[in-house]
Automatic annotation (TrEMBL):
Keyword set includes RNA-binding: no
PANTHER family documented for this protein: STEROID 17-ALPHA-HYDROXYLASE/17,20 LYASE, STEROID 17-ALPHA-HYDROXYLASE_17,20 LYASE
Entries under Pfam families matching the protein: p450 (PF00067)
Main location (coarse class): endoplasmic reticulum
Name of the protein: Uncharacterized protein
Organism field: Mytilus galloprovincialis
Amino acid sequence: MVVLSDIKSVTEALVKSKADFADRPFYHSDHMLTEGSKDIVFAKYTPTWKLHRKIAVKALRQYMAGNRLEEILHASMKLCLPLMAKENGAFNPENYIDLMVFNILNGVCFGKSVEVDDPDFMKFMKLSKKMNEMTGNGFVEDMFPIMFKIWTTNKYRTINNMNNELISIIKRKFEEHEETFDLDNIRDFTDSLILARKEAEQEENEEILSKLSDTHLRQTLKDIFTAGIETSTVTLRFAVRYMAGLPDIQSKVQEEIDRVVGKDRLPTVKDRENLSYTEATLHEVMRLGTAVPLGIPHSTLCDTRVGGYDVPKDTTVVINHWALHNDPNQWKDVNKFDPTRFLDENGKLGKKQDSWLPFSAGRRGCLGESVAKPELHLIFATIMQKFKITLPEGTNPEIELAGSGFVAIPAPYTVILKERNVL
Ligand code: HEM
């Protein structure tokens, strides 16, 4: 296994070496949990993966072209904000952040916003968190694949059952969409996937059709949901926790939002270009609170080289995003939370710093970056606009980490909210 921990070698591998590092290692457990490697996230670098990625990118682009993201977020915020305002004293904001993010991705995929007690929301979040927590340390079955045939561990069986429950939720939603599909009204990402299949049917393209089975399409949906929800909720949980412990930075974010957006309306996607300090603060949250510290493992497609070393075909390659974000050669006062490092001399968001790579890069770079960036910004800016956030007295100012999954999680914490800008 090779671990790349500096931006020079990461850029060489992911960007300059074309597809050499674009494969994924094969794990039997992934193969089983993705109904036979029919997903995007863990799939090998094959024409089928390329087709699904292309269709998913196009479908997300279609969705993002209008202002549906903003509409769905505003609807969700109108549900969440009054509930948050009613919280008395210190509380854990996790459930509200979960709902805001769930509603965005539920909106993207299935065109709907739900309430806090929606059964699918509650079930989905519970399953997704538990699965992230449990899968982090891997499966003994991957070392001894024969076990899949004779006896699987309790851990694998539990995760497999939870995975099947997730798949059944998505399957039901996909079937509802198929029944109500209308060519003249493409409502969301799911409709765009169904449309892609109908187009292949019209062209009688059997080869493409064989790659667009129901299983493939629901696995793509599952990817968008699972890859999108945990990463975004964790980033926002870090953001709220950082702001609670950094009152000066919080005030600067709020001054900017008050000046640009005011008090009479919610922030919009268009405001983002004028909210440079707020965006820079989010960048700094994503640097110090790296949500996916070791990315998703890559694998080499051929014999290749990186950093002057030979790397044989089929070598697992890990991108250490945490190291890139904490490299003292790249970041001045590396441990200091300082949004201004992302701003130019005019206070505008400067060119992206090379060693800031939360979404990775190259052919396997995060497929949802175009959704995640406006989504995180809108949610963060709206929370900051509405609430002053403080820590309960006696809280350790250091942020503690928890969890052992793909995603790094801040340890559960509580905050106190005070409404600002009450209309
Ligand atoms: C804070 C938010 C997010 C972060 C930090 C993040 C980060 C990442 C990272 C590090 C990877 C691995 C890239 C690689 O292998 O080099 C990845 C892959 C992926 N992400 Fe995200 N992500 C976020 C949000 C999202 C969202 C909202 C979606 C869906 C709308 C999404 C969908 C995906 C998919 C499908 C892949 C697999 C791409 C492939 O293998 O071709 N992510 N993400």
